[in-house]
Amino acid sequence: xxxxxxxxxxxxxxxxxxxxxxxxxxxxxxxxxxxxxxxxxxxxxxxxxxxxxxxxxxxxxxxxxxxxxxxxxxxxxxxxxxxxxxxxxxxxxxxxxxxxxxxxxxxxxxxxxxxxxxxxxxxxxxxxxxxxxxxxxxxxxxxxxxxxxxxxxxxxxxxxxxxxxxxxxxxxxxxxxxxxxxxxxxxxxxxxxxxxxxxxxxxxxxxxxxxxxxxxxxxxxxxxxxxxxxxxxxxxxxxxxxxxxxxxxxxxxxxxxxxxxxxxxxxxxxxxxxxxxxxxxxxxxxxxxxxxxxxxxxxxxxxxxxxx
Length: 308
Hints:
6-stranded mixed beta sheet
């Protein structure tokens, strides 16, 4: 979710991720527990499992507006309901490989991203891990939030950088550590990290393979929010869910073009960026949602947007 990692970039992340996770887990000592780690994305299994039931059928990616899931699936797509309708949670579930990427996971991620892109009911995507101690994201037109509750090293952090917003527990560990293994970040890290925190600091972190905790990551602007971890191990996920709920009432077309305007505008000079903004603004004018917003304001009620 996402989001900026396209299928090609996802494929580039397959190599060396298991070795990275193993090498850096060892650095924290035998007592270190990978609480929601981000070789992919981190969360408490107990909390994540609540509300899920096994899905009937084969072990293919299930898609539907329910909490059904096949327990052995490596990627779990959960469409939240009731007051959270419109929020989708992508959960990476490769516990035996510490959420490292393989061909099947990349294929499933690509398939899920393609499905979410065309689904107008989706308002916000949260990316997290179902493996205690690990994380993973994608390229989507809707807002994406990376919830980092544990370890996010190498490809895990690169995927988090591809999301629009990153939140983390203070106990989380984040870093682009590839130079320790005589390689470089190959999933967008050398490009997205400088854009997030500035060139000089990004170089320092990549050159040193330094690992930051949540507070340090917040101080350098790598994440937007840092939380004290709770007993369930899902403090970052809970914050991500709160943010997603804030996004839900807004016009879905406006949210998509606002993201487009920001993303495209950051890649060009200001004059060109303003032209992009004008073009994106124009896309919202003929929508039914805009008329509904004006009518709701006049009638002093909450708008009922349909994404049209």
